[in-house]
Amino acid sequence: EQFQDYHNNEKLRFFIGDVRDKNRLYRAMNGVDIVIHAAALKQVPTCEYNPIEAVKTNIDGAANVIDAAIDNNVEKVMALSTDKAVHPVNLYGATKLVAEKLFIQGNTYSGGRKTKFSCVRYGNVMASRGSVIPIFQEQRKNGTVTITDKNMTRFWITQEQAVRFIIDCIEKMKGGEIFVPKIPSMKIIDLAQAIAPQSKIKITGIRPGEKIKEVLLTGEEARHAKEFDKYFVVEPEYAFWSKSNFKDGKLLPSDFSYSSGDNNQWITKKELIKMLEEL
Fold first, then answer.
1. Where are the domains of the chain?
2. How would you list the strands of the sheet with 225-227, edge to edge?
3. Is 84 among the residues known to form the active site?
4. b vs e for 49-66, b when ≥16 Cβ sit within 10 Å of the residue's Cβ?
5. What is the pLDDT of residues 7-46, one digit of tens each?
6. From 84, 96, 116, 226, active-site residue
7. Which fold has domain 2-125+157-183+214-259?
8. Is 0.90 surpassed by the pTM of this model?
């Protein structure tokens, strides 16, 4: 569909390929200034039961992107990460944690080349592929919606907000930092009731690799992080990083953490209903 809509745009090229295919990445990045790395196997249960495939895409694929970007003299690479990379309890989160480390260290691995690597780390993207929303909408037809735990919370960001934040971070990036947006939390049970108010809620129990709440910023990271009005910046603890970067940011308490269960921003059930109507 995208090819049909934009095939006459001289600024766009469409490639069939895979991040596992380094040769294809080299071709795709030829003449490119900025790369946004969004490719991943991201479904927690899928990664749990297909661990080798998750490693091939999320870790080996990330390494391929780094090599291709450096050798093609790409100026900036922004990798998209997830709250599941923080204190990971599932394979998906573990692979994204490794990917974060690879991209941060890409700034030294590049060996003095001009390519800079940074990461954006955020929570669930509303209505993205694999979102729970279409699952609840389908279950609504049968009169029963299943959730794994009534206390489960998640960070929530719209697609438009995510895209705007990524673009803003690309403009600000120095290379080596992780950007974390300040975004609201919501309760999964509120989302289920907003989608299917007439349906019964069935509690099924937590699946392998799930958490009750997610964390976007840990106390350990807070020691070397800065706070701004709408986001945090986790600075790397490596020699290549200049302490003058983001000097206008506010220092965080050493015991600070940013959790979906202890957030100061919450989306109410009424707000969820309105957001769903606008999809």
1. 2-125+157-183+214-259
2. 34-37, 76-82, 116-122, 178-181, 231-234, 225-227, 250-251
3. yes
4. eeeeebbbbbbbbbbbbb
5. 788 888 889 999 999 999 999 999 999 999 999 999 998 9
6. 84
7. Rossmann fold (3.40.50)
8. yes
